[in-house]
Every structure is written in structure tokens, then in C-alpha cells.
Design brief:
Shape: globular
Distance between the termini: 103 Å
Number of strands: 40
CATH architecture of the largest domain: 7 Propeller
Strand content: over 45%
Strand order of the largest sheet: 3-2-6-7-33-32-31-30
Structural class: mainly beta
CATH superfamily of the largest domain: YVTN repeat-like/Quinoprotein amine dehydrogenase
Number of domains: 3
Length: 474
């Protein structure tokens, strides 16, 4: 090797050394340091990177604490105990040193404050302190039921087959009714009254509509959005060559998705305000809900997060693709993840598990708030059935205890709904525990048939069954 070659090699090695040293120094100061502390050494600490990449981060936990160096980005911390967990999103910037104290939350379980309400297949639920209304998905005709304060169950709308209902309040909603193999109609529900609505276009099964809390409602044929007027007429408020789907409505705005011709799915979401202004961003969502003030929008899907009325993102939730997000107040959101219900706080950035059900029983499919915001009604899709079978539960947001003995209702849910050749029996536990029966023949005595069925299943003894209230569903 010549002297010149040795010089070039030495120079190259020095340059590589300096570059490597600079990179080490840069990484040391550029990486963020996250210190996570929990109050119980038995709690586990895990970390997930959300952006710029999405993958789990190796964490070495030393009893109650874990210290990890990571690249700048957004991360989700999970602290879990044996029964529950808490999640928090943190954003770490260049060289930041951040300490987070996080503890597992308190969970209500199926054997605790999660109270069974009915084995009737409750969906599209609305509730107040004195009544409960829902579509029965366990019945092939999808009837609409109302339960009053005395626990009496009655049919609303006669033989109508309700496909879905969007409620503005607990006593006002718009429903889609199936009238034939491919025929549908829109109906207005006001208290106990149901009336047909004539639209400016033919109703199809995939019609989009939404109802605001103040009773204003919107409907779309897929390209034109109309606002319903009090006199029964409609006003066109928006049109597009794209396929338009109406989502959630507030008193000031409606959220929509748009799918261009030829696209396989929606490519953008937009907010239309009452004053005619529109804001739009690219992306797809599955569900959305406005906060009580109408100033914030929670979304689930590709665009999971919380947005303002101009679709600026203001918060990133710890979980993606959440189910049935609803608002408790303007800073608190409830949502479903499988067999768990979580509460997310915009103020703290934390998500706490507030309700859980044994996955062997089923998974939550929908949640609705009572009009006084005292209770959450949770629909459960039960496992072990050949067809979709739904139950309804509720739990108190203020840790309220049951107002009546629910242990009997819990036992009855194990064997109900039952379908005998002549009788179908269900439990109703809205304000008391009773058995609701449907007769396939008006001459049959379903009471004794149902009593014998419950006793023979060894769910309850004869004395316990005989004190139950039995009612026929009219």
C-alpha cells in the first residue's frame, strides 16, 4: 500500500468515526425519554408506538416503574391489572424527557354493577327514567317495543318491521320500516304516535338519514341532502355527483361521507354547517358522534380521533376503530372494544375501562345514554346461538346501585329467551323483574308452560318462580 493510499484510508476511517460519533450524540439528544410509574408492582406496563410507525415497543419494567428511550412520536401507554387497564396517549418531541403516572382503573363487571335489563333483542335503544324503547332484533319481524315505569311492555307501530331508528330525543325519532321484499318507508316517532312520512324521492333500503337533538332531521337519496320542515315539506341543503352518506347531526351541523363514482369506498368526510359553510378532509370513517355542544366530533375508522367543527384534529384516542362512540359530556367519551367499555377523557388523555362482560357470554355491540345521563344502556351480542341474539344491560355512571333485585334477572338470562312450540318467553328488568311472553296460539296458557320450563332448567325453584310477574305481549 502506498503512502497516498494509507492516507486516504486513514482519512476515510476518521470521517466514518466522526460521522458515527455525531450520530450517537445526535441520537442521544434527539431520542425522547419516557418514565412510566404505577402504584402497584403487580400492574404490567406496555407501550405502543402510534406514529410515525405502528408497532409495540420493548419495555423493561422494574417493579412499579419503566424507563424507555424512544424516537419522537405519538405513543399509547397501557397499565393493566388482573381485571382492568388504563390507557393514555403521549406525544414526545425532540429530546423531551416526560414522566407519566398511570394506574389501572376500576371496572364494573357482569356480576357487579352491570345490570341485566332484558333478553328481548334490544337495539336502537332510547331511555329515560320512566320509559325504554327499542327494536327487538331477536324477533324476525323487528318490532318496536316500549316499556313504561311499571315494567309493562307494549308494541309501538303495530306490525311494522323497523330496520333502524335514529333518535333525536328519548321521545322523538325517525325510523326506516320494511314494507315488502324491496319496499321501505320512513316514519316519524313522536311519543306513542307513529306516522308515515312522504319523501321527495323513492325510499330504498340503504337510505341515509339523521336526527339532531333539537328535532331537525335530514334525509338523502345518495346525492341530494334534504332538511325536513315542520309542515311536511323538504328543503334541499346539499347536492353532489359523489355518493353521499349522512352520518351524525348536531343542532348546528351534519357530518357526511363522500364516495366518488368508481371508488370502492368513501374517500373523504365533510361537515356541513347550517350557514352553508363546508369543511372536508380525506379519509374514511365507520361511525361518528357530535358532543352535546356540537363543537366536537368523535370519529372511528381510518380517521379515529376527535375533531373540531372545521375538522381540525384536536385529540388522538388511545384505541383505533372503536365501536359506538358516544359522549357523556363535552370532554368525556364512551366507546366499545369487544367485551369492554372504555371512558376517554380529553382533559387527561386517558382511557379507563368502566365495564366488562365475560367474552364467553358475548361482546358489546352498542351503547346508548339515558336522557338524564345517569345510565348507560349496553347491547350485548351473545355467543353460542345459531342466529344473532341480543341482550340489554345497563350501568350507572355514578356507580349507582340497582334499584331492584337483579340477581333473579341475571339467572333468567341464562335460559331466556326460550322458544317453545307454543310460547316465547323473555325477561324484562327495567323497573322490576317480570317474564314477558308471546303466544303462538291465543288458546294456550304460556304462564304454566314457562314456569315449568324455568323450574325444570333448575335456574329457579318453584317458590321463586311463583312470585314473578308474568305478562303477555300484546
Amino acid at each position: 500500500m502506498t503512502t497516498k493510499q494509507r492516507s486516504i484510508l486513514l482519512y476515510s476511517l476518521i470521517v466514518l468515526f466522526l460521522i458515527g460519533s455525531a450520530w450517537i450524540v445526535y441520537s442521544f439528544f434527539a431520542d425522547a425519554t419516557l418514565t412510566i410509574t404505577t402504584s402497584d408492582a403487580t400492574n404490567s406496563i406496555t407501550l405502543q408506538e402510534n406514529s410515525p410507525n405502528s408497532h409495540p415497543i420493548d419495555v423493561t419494567q422494574n417493579t412499579k416503574q419503566a424507563v424507555v428511550r424512544v424516537e419522537p412520536g405519538t405513543y399509547t401507554i397501557v397499565v393493566a391489572s388482573a381485571s382492568t387497564s388504563t390507557r393514555q396517549v403521549v406525544k414526545l418531541s425532540f429530546g423531551e424527557r416526560k414522566a407519566v403516572n398511570l394506574n389501572a382503573g376500576i371496572v364494573t363487571t357482569i356480576t357487579g354493577n352491570l345490570i341485566p335489563i332484558t333478553s328481548l333483542g334490544a337495539d336502537a335503544v332510547t331511555a329515560s327514567s320512566d320509559h325504554l324503547s327499542f327494536i327487538d332484533r331477536n324477533d324476525a319481524n323487528y318490532p318496536l317495543y316500549n316499556v313504561d315505569s311499571s315494567n309493562h311492555v307494549s308494541v309501538l307501530g303495530g306490525s311494522r318491521s323497523f330496520q333502524t331508528i335514529k333518535w333525536g330525543t328519548n321521545s322523538f325519532g325517525i325510523g326506516l320500516v320494511k314494507t315488502g321484499a324491496v319496499d321501505y318507508e320512513i316514519v316519524k316517532i313522536q311519543g306513542q304516535s307513529i306516522s308515515n312520512v312522504t319523501l321527495p324521492f323513492k325510499v330504498t333500503g340503504d337510505i341515509g338519514f339523521s336526527v339532531a337533538p333539537d328535532g331537525r332531521w335530514y334525509v338523502s337519496d345518495g346525492h341530494i341532502i334534504y332538511s325536513a320542515n315542520g309542515d311536511g315539506s323538504f328543503t334541499k341543503v346539499y347536492s353532489s355527483s359523489d355518493y353521499v352518506r349522512i352520518g351524525s347531526a348536531s343542532n348546528q351541523s351534519i357530518e357526511i361521507t363522500q364516495q366518488p363514482s368508481g371508488a370502492s369506498r368513501p374517500t373523504s368526510i365533510a361537515v356541513l354547517h347550517n350557514d352553508g359553510t363546508k369543511y372536508q378532509i380525506a379519509g374514511e370513517l365507520y361511525e361518528a358522534a357530535w358532543s352535546p355542544s356540537g363543537n366536537k366530533l368523535v370519529t372511528s375508522g381510518e380517521l379515529t380521533g376527535v375533531f373540531d367543527t372545521q375538522l381540525n384534529k384536536i385529540a388522538q384516542m388511545p384505541d383505533n376503530n372503536v365501536v359506538a362512540p358516544i359522549w357523556i359530556d363535552d370532554n368525556t367519551i364512551l366507546y366499545i372494544q369487544g367485551s369492554d367499555i372504555w371512558r376517554y377523557s380529553l382533559d387527561s388523555g386517558k382511557s379507563d375501562k368502566v365495564a366488562a362482560i365475560d367474552p364467553l357470554v358475548g361482546n358489546f355491540s352498542d351503547i346508548r345514554m339515558s336522557d338524564d345521563h345517569a345510565y348507560v344502556y349496553a347491547t350485548v351480542d351473545r355467543t353460542g346461538f345459531a342466529i344473532t341474539t341480543l341482550d340489554l344491560y345497563r350501568f350507572g355512571l355514578n356507580n349507582q346501585q340497582p334499584t331492584n333485585d337483579s340477581s333473579v334477572a341475571q339467572k333468567l338470562l341464562v335460559v331466556l329467551p326460550s322458544s317453545a312450540p307454543i310460547c316465547i318467553a323473555n325477561v324484562m328488568n327495567f323497573s322490576a323483574t317480570s317474564i314477558v311472553m308471546k303466544r303462538n296460539s291465543t288458546n294456550q296458557d304460556c304462564v304454566n308452560t314457562t314456569k315449568n320450563s324455568i323450574v325444570s332448567s333448575k335456574t329457579l325453584d318453584s317458590a321463586s318462580v311463583n312470585v314473578l310477574n308474568f305478562q303477555y305481549l300484546q
